[in-house]
User: What shape does this take?
Amino acid sequence: MGLNCGIVGLPNVGKSTLFNALTHTALAQAMNYPFCTIEPNVGRIAVPDARLDRISDLAYSLKKLPTFLEIVDIAGLVRGASQGEGLGNQFLGHIREIDAVLHVLRCFEDADIAHVEGGIDPLRDMDIVDTELLLADLESLERREASLIKKARGKNAEAERMLDVIHTLKLLLEDGNPARVFKSASFEESLALKNMQLLTYKPTLYICNVAETEATTGNAWTRAVQARAQDRGENAKIILVSAAIEAEIALLQDADEQQAYIQAIGLQETGLDRIVKEGYELLNLITFFTAGPKESHAWTIRQGAKAPEAAGTIHTDFERGFICAETISCADFIFYKGENGARNAGKVRLEGRDYSVQDGDIFHFRFNV
Assistant: This one.
């Protein structure tokens, strides 16, 4: 679908270590989950989903193909980026091109790794990044405001409405709040806000990079980050990750070895798996499946999409000639041990054009071109 998440943060907070661990982990899993590097700083990472393994087994598939999330490693930001300091213009340009932000914050001490600001303070680091993005957004809003004022003088009702939205947004930003806390009063406002491409409107996941001993418990810094996100009304999620642990896991070539190591240190899954899963949800995406002897395939679709759009994800002809979708829920497919069992139990449904795709649906599309 071309949707992606960008890893953002100050220099030396662990962004590239996490990105490299992601890509190396994907390479280690290449037999099961194909991985490709689109550019030196862009990776396409398989979204972990145990359902695909089970579906593939029950369908006796020769291959299983996961769905993917695109991750972009963006250069570190410094103070003054909004004024062109460091790689400021390039940094801000890269953020404009991504769909969601993975904001990495350093929450560990290490005398061997210098911090660009001279000491560890994730709230200060959060403020530095936020301030640069806020300043860039304010400049963007002021340009839009100047254009809309001219239209409003001509009694343009739409321009007048948008000026009210921009005024509210500017007050929010000037108070240090990101645009994503703005509560749209209507669908039109929400769409207009999305089209403004404000940097602080992008959905954000905070990744607290902690020491190896704090990967499960966190620390005072991570709790402060959580409190800050809640206080601003962002409803943002926080993930604890130890980049050092993830780098060690990435060095293990065998999936069983990786799992044994994860369990030995008290984790249920890698931090990187959680990042990919949360990033997927951050983009408001869900998964549907197709299954058969040749292959079982996971597909990405936006939440709320209709059945013909899902068909078009596989092939445009499927959407153009869509008739209906034979549908089995993943839970029924697994419980009744495959398509035949689900069919015999009356769990196969015929869904039409108005059906909203549910996460985990298994489809067989009927079409006529």
Summary: The chain is about 45% helix and 20% strand. The first strand starts at residue 4 and ends at 8. Residues 26-40 have pLDDT under 50 and may be disordered.
